[in-house]
Amino acid sequence: MERRLTAILSADVVGYSRLMGANEIATLEALKRLRSELLDPCIAEHHGRTFKLTGDGTLVEFPSVVSALECAIEIQRDMRKRNEVSSDDRKIEFRIGINLGDVIVDGDDLYGDGVNVASRIESVARPGGIAVSASVRDNVVTKTDVVFEDAGDQQLKNIEVPIRVYNVVIGSAKSRAEPAKDAVVEEQEVRPSIAVLPFNNMSGDPEQEYFSDGISEDIITDLSKVSGLFVIGRNTSFAYKGQSPDLTKVGSELGVRYILEGSVRKAGQRVRINAQLIDATTGGHVWADRYDRDLTDIFEIQDEITEAIVEQLRITLLPKEKQAITQAQTSNVEAYNYFLKGRHFFANHTKVLLRLARQMFVRATELDPGYARAYAAIAVCDARLAYSYRVDIKVDDILALAEKAIVLDPAVAEAYVARGVALAGTGKHAEAKASYERAILLDPASFDAHFAYGRYLIAVGKLEKAIPHLLRAAELDPDDWQSPLVLDSVFMKLGQKEEADRYSLLGVKRAEEAMRNHPENSRPAQLGAAALARLGETERAREWLDRALVLDPDDPIVSYNAACTFAQLGDVDRAIESLERWSASSAWETENWLQTDNDFDSIRSDPRFVALLEKVNQRGRVNA
Fold first, then answer.
1. Total-model pTM
2. 3-state secondary structure of 555
3. pLDDT digits (tens, 9 = 90+) for 193-218
4. CATH assignment at residue 585
5. What is the 3 state secondary structure string of 432-472?
């Protein structure tokens, strides 16, 4: 066998599973761009050769260890610049490990300890950082101005002998005379990162699941208010619900250093909460506590858990952050209990569960008339019911609820979402735009804010501006089927069929799961049917459309989406018939989709369609 001494660079993406779970298509596209724009050119410039790609991982051989290190530093510096304009949960970060060792050559592939050690060193590198073996450090220390931070001997997985590892201090050109100062700067550039796994329901009653989930969500919300902490979003961490995962593996998958897990037992007027903070790199306990209190102490318990985490991670709270964390929305435990029930129902977005959620939120306001989040939640329910399901709800009523919530608490983002939907429905576009943007400013991780704003931008013809908000919505909720299917339509209107097909496939996949979970809801079937028709899956499109028409035969939105599907399938008569049923209904807002929807291109010259379009336009002019 041929053997040689060579420098091996191993790189992979931090939190790859989290990124793929949030938006697999966008993640793959981003990695593809990074390889073509950054990795491949940089590797070629430094005379490297990529000999293996493993999904998010890359193995590269360099003839010179100096070239390998210079390439790694250039990549990580460039990635930092790119990530300056990305939100924390959308950043792509690499870990890089470099080793100089003996390898076995097998054609174009390489094997042996030289490769294995590089891969294992990469696994202990900091996110966005570079770790090297002692052999690398010893060979370059006199040839470069790079500063190394001694990380000590590391017992690497499946490597028998401990390996001395050094972290590379990345930044501008540095003098080797100041390693300690540079190491401190490097540490300050990385915020502590944490994922809060859904707390286990230990009450012995599955119907109490909403309470344990609610506690977990509120802790995530409180921690997200701390600027010195990077917190994984609710939808991502809740993917581990019902599992007993290896926490070190979870940390690696999500790209976080710390994990909070726990359990909740609610019985009568008593609550017991166990919480423990784990260092995901070692699996060791950082902090743990048990709270056995009256149910009325639930708000204090949440505050104490948040404050304990902040203290353990040595984070300094800004005055406004401390106030935001300790300021409870309500002191009424029963009102809070109803709010959590409502939020649990609302998460599914079906018409039946939205109405049930609304009842819970109304009850919360009856118990506490000053509960701002509950009023905002009612307004969002009403906006969703009116906008998505055409339930007859007055715009003025939605506005009144939203304004009441804002008066009680100007920082409740949901109220601005509902306000934006209502204002858009009355044609007050400047005010609607400002309200949506205020909601996103208050809560950048709000699915409802990004989704509603994206839909609004489509309605006013700003398709390109809608795309980032719909992409963000699809990332924030990995179960959301609406955003991908709306993106499919947007890309079709922009003439980008390849992109449209990608989001059609993603939307259909998610819609199929939604149909299994909520077979009573026609929305996934009606929107998915049109996407399937565009993809050429005619039989499935007809099956899904039949399902939607059986579930909601009198829903005008079903009629509109049925027309889209029939037009795609070439059934002109049924398409026109469905559009006539839709146009005869009382629309909650002026519709302009007929003019721009690509689904109707095949019937646009039909005299019946032309007459229908004029009728709808005339109604719009009268309403305006």
1. 0.67
2. coil
3. 899 999 999 887 887 889 999 999 88
4. 1.25.40
5. HHHHHHHHHHHCCCCHHHHHHHHHHHHHCCCHHHHHHHHHH
